[in-house]
Write a structure and sequence with these properties.
By secondary structure, this protein is mainly beta. The chain has no helices and 18 strands. The strands form five sheets. The chain has a four-stranded antiparallel sheet with strand order 4-5-6-7, with no helix packed on it. A hairpin with a 5-residue loop joins strand 9 (about 95-100) and strand 10.
C-alpha cells in the first residue's frame, strides 16, 4: 500500500518506482533516479519509510525522503544462482521478511531493532518464491510461486496453512493482501497486468 492506503506501490527492474491506482493505471512515477534491479517494495507503517530489494546487488535498502537509498543489509547466499536471488520483501512487526527465489528457496528474517539477521528458513513447498506479504491481521505470510502458479498462506516459519491456484496469472511477481476488500493484488511480470484475486483460503 501507499502511505495512506489509497493506492499501491510498485517497482520495475528497469524503470523505477511507481504509485498505482487500484485499476492498474499509473498515478505517478517517483522522482527516484538510479539504475537498480528492483524486485520488491515494502512499507514500514511505523516509520513511513519504504524498503526496496535489489536482486543484482542482493541488497535491501531504505528509500530516504530525498529519493536516495541507504543500504540496510546485503544478503549472501552460498552457491546462489544469478537472477534467482532476492525476489520478495515485506515488513512485519519490526522484521523484514526477505524471499530468496530459488537455489535455495529461503525466507530470511531480518530484525530491524538489532540490525541483524535472525533466521533462514528453507521453504520446501515452493519452487519459486516470487513474492511475499506479511498479513497484520493474523501475523502470517502469503507467498506467490510464479512457477507453480500458486498462492500460499503460511506461518512466519514457512509452514503451509492453505493454498490457492492462480493459474490464470502467467508470472505472479507482486503481491499485497487486502483484508478490507477480501482480496489480494497480484502483479504479472510477463504482461504488466494487475489482478484483483478473491481470497478463497
Amino acid at each position: 500500500f501507499s502511505k495512506d492506503s489509497t493506492s499501491l506501490m510498485a517497482v520495475s527492474d528497469k524503470f523505477g518506482i511507481y504509485e498505482l491506482n487500484f485499476d492498474g493505471t499509473t498515478k505517478r512515477k517517483l522522482d527516484y533516479i538510479g539504475s537498480n534491479d528492483f524486485e520488491a517494495i515494502a512499507f514500514n507503517y511505523k516509520t513511513g519509510k519504504y524498503y526496496l530489494a535489489d536482486e543484482t546487488n542482493m541488497t535491501v535498502s531504505v528509500l530516504n525522503d530525498d529519493m536516495t537509498l541507504t543500504q540496510i543489509t546485503k544478503v549472501n547466499i552460498e552457491g546462489g544462482v544469478s537472477n534467482k536471488g532476492i525476489e520478495g520483501l515485506t515488513y512485519g512487526e519490526d522484521t523484514l521478511y526477505i524471499a530468496n527465489q530459488e537455489a535455495p528457496t529461503l525466507i530470511i528474517k531480518y530484525d530491524l531493532k538489532t540490525n541483524t539477521e535472525k533466521s533462514r528458513q528453507t521453504v520446501s513447498f515452493a519452487t519459486y518464491l516470487s513474492e511475499i506479504c506479511f498479513d497484520r491481521t493474523d501475523r502470517t505470510l502469503w507467498i506467490c510461486d510464479s512457477l507453480q502458479k500458486m498462492l500460499f498462506h503460511c506461518t512466519t516459519n514457512g509452514i503451509v496453512i492453505a493454498s490457492q491456484s492462480i493459474d490464470y496469472i502467467s508470472k505472479a511477481e507482486a503481491l499485497l493482501v487486502d483484508r478490507k476488500r477480501n482480496c489480494c493484488w497480484i502483479g504479472c511480470d510477463l504482461t504488466g497486468n494487475l489482478y484483483r484475486v478473491k481470497l478463497k483460503i
